[in-house]
Amino acid sequence: MDQGVVVAVGHTDASYDQAAEAFDRGASLLTHAFNAMPGLGHRAPGPVGAALSREHVAIEVIADGNHVHPVMVRTLFDAAASRVVLVTDAMSATGLGNGRYSLGGLDVDVNEGQSTLSGTDTLAGSTLTMAHAVQVATAAGVPAELALRAATDTPARVLGLPLAADIELGTSLAGLNCFRDGEPNAFHA
């Protein structure tokens, strides 16, 4: 942590108390909220509850409608708007359509945008783009400004990178995804 490393909690069986201890010792990011971890229960709030109760913790969410229900995406924003980070968990099959692909040496089937380990219903990465994550979040009722911030400024802040408003004239922006009239628009420097 002293070397600029962001310590994260995620894909864990940790209880609320265990996750809280990790956050209290310096972890500052919850990876893939709700996925591969205990849920947010009223008696056992799990890692998500621990993250929500600590203001220094940013909370990643895969807003594709498969990994996390849109109601829970909106709930995260309602509870911690300035700390939500939209992530894609995208694999190399993104944009390629239905078929069988490889992820870390495992076969993954992509069907209608959902990627699962072949022969199972276990989610394996995603084919989500950031533009679609923003669309899913806004369709769930998240204000566009907050969804865009969760895709740009909040992750930049977590990683110690400059915020969009701080980028100086002449900075290379090749490959940056921008929005025009609420629609994704490729930007070429």
Q: Low-confidence parts lasting 5 or more residues at pLDDT below 50?
A: none
Could you tell me the mean pLDDT? 89
Q: Which range does the strand content fall in?
A: 15-25%
What is the ordering of alpha helices and beta strands?
EHEHEHEEEEHHHEE
Which range best describes the helical content: under 10%, 10-25%, 25-40%, 40-55%, 55-70% or over 70%?
25-40%
Distance from first to last alpha carbon: 34 Å
Judging from the principal axes of the Cα atoms, what is the shape?
Answer: globular
Biggest sheet: strands side by side, in what order?
Answer: 1-2-3-4
In terms of structural class, how would the helical and strand content be classed? alpha/beta
Largest β-sheet summary? 4 strands, parallel
Task: Count the beta strands.
Answer: 9
Could you walk me through the main structural features you see in this protein, from its secondary elements to its overall organization?
By secondary structure, this protein is α/β, with parallel strands linked by helices. The model has no long low-confidence stretch (mean pLDDT 89). It has 6 helices and 9 strands. 28% of the residues lie in helices and 20% in strands. The longest helix is centred in the middle third of the chain and has 11 residues, at 70-80. The strands form 3 sheets. The protein has a 4-stranded parallel β-sheet with strand order 1-2-3-4, sandwiched between helices. It is globular. It has helices at residues 16-24, 46-52, 70-80, 130-139, 144-151, 153-159; strands at 8-10, 29-31, 58-62, 84-87, 99-103, 106-111, 114-117, 177-180, 183-186. A hairpin with a 2-residue loop joins strand 5 and strand 6 (106-111).
